[in-house]
Task: inverse folding
């Protein structure tokens, strides 16, 4: 196991280096820089623009900017965000934490929906229930999550107008959050998280449900399951212990992607629900060409992707004894 | 009699202990006679706050700007635009031919942490803003035509400003917010610019933030909400006309929303106290909510013009295409283009009827200047395709080809490319209308919306061969004292968009005249004389038509009826906005 991990670490160095070059230069391909909008301000003189450009290091050639950035990063310094004039990590860290809460709840709900529904579909293949679930899932599969979010928001507004039930529409906390005690604070945040997490889980579950259903069906018709049944194991054991455990292998392989997904936020759902996660901030950073913020964040996600993949390799070995890590 | 006595006493007392600043009763349409106190004004902003540091902040809506509200040596009276002493104890003593201002500051003013506000705070603030390593957005406001202004401490309660030249905007320049010397001065002396930049990032505990103005930060949740509470020290030297401490409100909060649609939704749901309607659609939604009884709010459309401009500029530095350069430099061509601009259609179609036609760089909100220019005979080349045709015929464009486009003797079509920033739907419509009308007149306009950053790069490019034909864009910002752009009018400046050669020299005598008039007006202290100089500038600009001004949008006001204390209707406009938050109260 240890040689495997060491090998992974060594392999990741050139990968990261190449990724960092790509990240930095692809960002540079976009026209203009952080100061471009300022050039249209009648109140800012050329002298001032030159000062700022020098302050941000924008007056240097791109390769010099890259080397400087890379050098600092090796020392754990991701550079300063132009907009915030603060270290990149200080800026993105609170946002990442917010996103992680949302994504964790989403993942729990995602598996809590996808696994039972997928197993149900396989066990009751072609029943009315299976077909009904399939229709609904097909429908959801084609729905972008942000669009579903908008519909849900509209629904909540209607509900509020009719019944006065106060379901939070956006944000992560209520106006009176600061005056709540610890337990109330947790409940308050949960109240804000549940709708976006549920919307995301429902739209995404469709895909996984179908994978699980297919895998289960395949395994259920395998010889060893028939043998197990013939030996008289209960239906429950046959499904959950023998079939499900074997059907789950491709899902475990995908777990590696969860780690970077957790910090990359919940995408447009965060925007629609005005959730203070990483996505809205990243979009602003792209809009304002906040170079080091975008580059720093992308590097962190790349690192997590590499770590996540190593983790899922290890998990695979745990689930499937045929795969050996070494 | 009692009033006179109080006034006399107040005047006598100035040297010993300064009297507070009294907000004129005329600044509010609704007196807070019941002395209602407390409550929260719920505002919104569409982008997350980036810093609490007043020296590195560059946002339009920012925490330092909000905290510092109401703190400045002078403030402009919305009734007559005059500057009146605010943190200053009285009018400035002017000497050295109008270039030196000695200002006594009100005694007894305190920062939110209880420290006294003194001359040091102004001097330190000035020093940090003008250090180019800090990168302050206010850097330029301390320079006059590239020459620095200096700020000096005479004694604890006296500051001296020395201007390199006479300046009409001197009072605005001096009215910057003083930040605490005991925080920033100390950091600057020990750590220089870097020391200042490190202070007051988003991670700083609100309790450490110190404010001279109306508000002080009480909590901030990134991407969600900022809550500011009333600075108690502010009420010591700011009173309403009945002697009550200001502000009345206990809290001012910003909800950070994804975009203006989200803000509108929150306003309609009664979760915000004010909203800035953009267009007819917004107004209709708000009106429907009010009529339907779902929202108790005040709504007034077309309160005043916006303080911004939309225009088309032609590139005079096009060495790669001498024929086009000659064309763009010909005043008859540009006048023809102004005749082609169907501004009425632009107002109706692109602005939904909510706006006005514009012909000058001065924003229509600055009505005094516009009136002065028009009465001095500044020309307006209004929509008239026949007149445009005549001018183009003088340029040799008399024949049309089979497609209906004008051609010169060599058979070359009269055409140019017009760009604007993609995604700005209003500008895309303005450009489309212009191109359609141009086609009627036989001019082929290749209208192409492009990326904003690329566009700005083209517009601000310098040299003999700049990379565009014509650009449709807008500007905003500026004041109502001298309403011409210091970066726009003089030759060689950044946004002198039509002519920007390497040496920055003027190409025509009118440009020279405009440059001269700009500095002359900037240095004229007498309002009437300054308006007259502005009128001459507008006349030169109108005749030259270097930039074709198109239309301007309107400013609309709406706010929840639970809040009171707004300006009287006649004082509300896009420059002063709808209220002074010091006088705002929750009913």
Result:
């Amino acid at each position: 196991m240890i040689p495997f991990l060491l090998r992974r670490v060594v392999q990741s160095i050139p990968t990261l280096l190449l990724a960092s070059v790509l990240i930095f230069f692809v960002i540079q391909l976009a026209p203009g820089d952080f100061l471009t909008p300022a050039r249209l301000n009648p109140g800012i003189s050329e002298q001032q623009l030159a000062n700022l450009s020098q302050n941000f290091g924008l007056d240097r050639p791109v390769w010099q900017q890259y080397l400087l950035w890379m050098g600092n990063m090796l020392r754990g310094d991701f550079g300063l965000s132009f907009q915030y004039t603060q270290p990149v990590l200080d800026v993105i860290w609170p946002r990442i934490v917010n996103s992680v809460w949302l994504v964790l709840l989403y993942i729990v709900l995602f598996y809590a929906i996808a696994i039972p529904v997928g197993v149900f579909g396989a066990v009751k293949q072609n029943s009315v229930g299976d077909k009904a679930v399939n229709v609904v899932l097909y429908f959801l599969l084609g729905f972008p999550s942000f669009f579903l979010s908008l519909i849900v928001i509209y629904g909540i507004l209607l509900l509020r107008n009719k019944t006065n039930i106060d379901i939070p529409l956006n944000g992560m906390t209520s106006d009176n959050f600061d005056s709540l005690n610890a337990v109330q604070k947790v409940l308050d945040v949960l109240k804000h998280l549940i709708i976006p997490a549920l919307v995301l889980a429902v739209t995404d579950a469709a895909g996984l449900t179908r994978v699980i259903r297919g895998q289960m069906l395949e395994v259920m018709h395998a010889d060893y399951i028939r043998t197990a049944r013939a030996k008289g194991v209960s239906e429950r054991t046959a499904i959950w212990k023998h079939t499900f455990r074997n059907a789950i292998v491709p899902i475990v392989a995908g777990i590696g992607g969860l780690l970077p997904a957790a910090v990359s936020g919940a995408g447009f759902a965060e925007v629609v629900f005005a959730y203070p996660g990483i996505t809205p901030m990243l979009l602003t950073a792209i809009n304002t060409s906040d170079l080091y913020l975008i580059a720093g964040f992308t590097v962190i996600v790349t690192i997590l992707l590499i770590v996540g993949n190593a983790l899922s390799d290890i998990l695979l070995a745990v689930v499937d004894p045929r795969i050996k890590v070494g | 009699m009692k009033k006179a006595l109080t006034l006399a006493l107040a005047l006598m007392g100035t040297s010993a202990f300064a009297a507070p600043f009294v907000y004129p009763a005329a600044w509010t349409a609704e007196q807070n006679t019941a002395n209602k106190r407390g409550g929260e004004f719920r505002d919104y902003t569409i982008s997350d706050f980036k810093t609490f540091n007043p020296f590195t902040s560059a946002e339009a809506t920012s925490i330092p700007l909000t905290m510092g509200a109401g703190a400045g040596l002078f403030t402009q009276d919305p009734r007559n635009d005059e500057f009146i002493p605010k943190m200053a104890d009285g009018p400035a003593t002017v000497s050295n031919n109008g270039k030196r201002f000695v200002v006594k500051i009100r005694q007894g003013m305190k920062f939110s942490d209880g420290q006294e506000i003194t001359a040091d705070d102004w001097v330190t603030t000035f020093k940090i803003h003008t250090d180019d390593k800090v990168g302050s957005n206010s850097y330029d406001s301390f320079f006059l035509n590239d020459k620095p202004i200096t700020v000096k401490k005479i004694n604890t309660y006296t500051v001296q400003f020395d201007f390199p030249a006479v300046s009409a905007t001197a009072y605005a320049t001096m009215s910057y917010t003083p930040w605490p010397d005991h925080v920033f001065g100390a950091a600057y002396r020990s750590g220089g610019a870097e020391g200042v930049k490190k202070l007051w990032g988003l991670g700083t505990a609100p309790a450490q933030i110190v404010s001279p103005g109306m508000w002080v930060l009480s909590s901030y949740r990134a991407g969600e909400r900022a809550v500011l509470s009333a600075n108690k020290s502010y009420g010591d030297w700011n009173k309403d006309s009945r002697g009550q401490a200001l502000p009345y409100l206990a809290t001012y909060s910003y909800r950070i929303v994804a975009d203006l649609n989200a803000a509108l939704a929150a306003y309609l749901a009664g979760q915000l106290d004010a909203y800035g309607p953009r267009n007819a659609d917004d107004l209709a939604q708000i009106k429907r909510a009010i009529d339907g009884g779902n929202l108790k709010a005040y709504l007034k459309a077309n309160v005043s013009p916006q303080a911004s401009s939309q225009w088309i500029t032609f590139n005079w530095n096009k060495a790669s295409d001498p024929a086009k350069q000659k064309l763009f430099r010909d005043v008859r061509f540009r006048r023809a283009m102004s005749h082609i601009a169907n501004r009425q259609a632009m107002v109706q179609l692109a602005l939904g009827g909510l706006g006005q036609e514009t012909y000058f760089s001065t924003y229509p909100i600055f009505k005094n200047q516009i009136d002065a220019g028009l009465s001095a005979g500044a020309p307006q080349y209004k929509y008239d395709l026949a007149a445009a045709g005549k001018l183009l015929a003088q340029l040799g464009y008399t024949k049309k080809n089979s497609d209906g486009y004008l051609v010169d003797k060599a058979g070359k079509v009269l055409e140019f490319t017009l760009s604007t920033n993609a995604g700005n739907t209003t500008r895309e419509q303005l450009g489309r209308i212009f191109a359609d009308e141009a086609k009627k007149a036989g001019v082929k306009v290749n209208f192409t919306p492009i990326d904003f950053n690329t566009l700005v790069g083209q517009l601000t490019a310098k040299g003999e061969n700049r990379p565009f034909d014509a650009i449709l864009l807008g500007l905003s910002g500026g004041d109502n004292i001298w309403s011409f752009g210091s970066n726009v009018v003089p030759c060689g400046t950044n946004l002198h968009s039509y002519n920007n050669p390497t040496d920055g020299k003027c190409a025509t005598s009118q440009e020279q005249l405009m440059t001269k008039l700009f500095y002359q007006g900037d240095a004229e202290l007498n309002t009437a004389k300054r308006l007259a100089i502005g009128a001459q500038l507008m006349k030169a600009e109108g005749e030259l038509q270097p930039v074709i001004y198109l239309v301007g949008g309107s400013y609309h006001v709406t706010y929840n009826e639970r809040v009171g204390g707004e300006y009287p209707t006649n004082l509300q406009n896009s420059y002063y906005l709808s209220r002074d938050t010091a006088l705002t109260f929750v009913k």
